[in-house]
Amino acid sequence: MAPRPTAAFFDLDKTIIAKSSTLAFSRPFQAGGLISRRAVLRSAYAQFVYLVGGADHDQMEKMRQFMSQLCAGWDVATVREIVAETLHNIVDPLVFDEAVSLIEEHRLAGRDVVIVSTSGTEVVGPIGEMLGADRVVATRMEIADGKYTGEIEYYAYAEEKARAIRELADLVGYDLEHSYAYSDSVTDVHMLEAVGHPHAVNPDRELRRIAASNGWPVLVFTKPVALRSRVPLPPARPTLAALAVGGVVAFGGVMWANARRRRLGA
């Protein structure tokens, strides 16, 4: 009997990249006419709180409300175009070198790489493609007539991340007992508990305490790197439509399966 497949599940913000992936795009969104200078400054403040103090449940809830209200009325195509055009300039220098090495190690071991993030799919999907992730689970905003309504259709947060992982395991057949998970935040404890090999990365105070009490490894990532120097990247302006062609799977929230393996096997 062939062994069941395994996976490595990664939170995105402060685990793979050094800041909030969503807030990192505030200036490009301003340049594209989507938000005001006041909103950029507020995003910068939220980024500061997120990085210095860590974001607890209440702060994450405020950030969620802020971002959902902020994007109400935005044109979806414009957002995707801005992300595609600025992705490498914004995200490339923010990726932790240690995270890239870890992703490479899991690939060599034959594990799928899955990013599970509270940030929106418009940002997480292209970043996942850039990193070569096999699947992505992310928050999805409600869309009507090509514009965001300001409502959240699916929120990939806290216990929901763990539920999504278990549902994905049922769908794909992952052996979670032999799978791995990585996160920086106590809000992801349920996600970490869903696998047999949980790891705390740059943990906040509460997650560090829980990791110590459970004997979980604690990793410290400190070296942002230019991703272009580490892994082959797609063209400077990736086409998001190509992600859909690669295979979008509606699963709880938002998930896409990278077609990399199918292309290699063709």
UniProtKB/TrEMBL annotation:
GO MF terms held by the record: hydrolase activity
Q: Which domain of life is it from?
A: Bacteria
- InterPro entries on file: HAD-like_SerB, HAD-like_sf, HAD_hydro_SerB1, HAD_sf
Any keyword Nucleotidyltransferase?
Answer: no
**Transmembrane ranges?**
240-259
Under the heading Pfam families, the entry gives: HAD
Q: Which Gene3D superfamilies match?
A: HAD superfamily/HAD-like, SG protein - dephosphorylation function
Note the coiled coil stretches, chain numbering. Answer: none
Q: Which UniProt keywords apply?
A: Hydrolase, Magnesium, Membrane, Metal-binding, Transmembrane, Transmembrane helix
Q: Which family does it belong to?
A: Belongs to the HAD-like hydrolase superfamily. SerB family.
Xref: NCBIfam families: HAD-SF-IB (TIGR01488), HAD-SF-IB-hyp1 (TIGR01490)
According to UniProt, the name of this protein is: HAD-IB family hydrolase
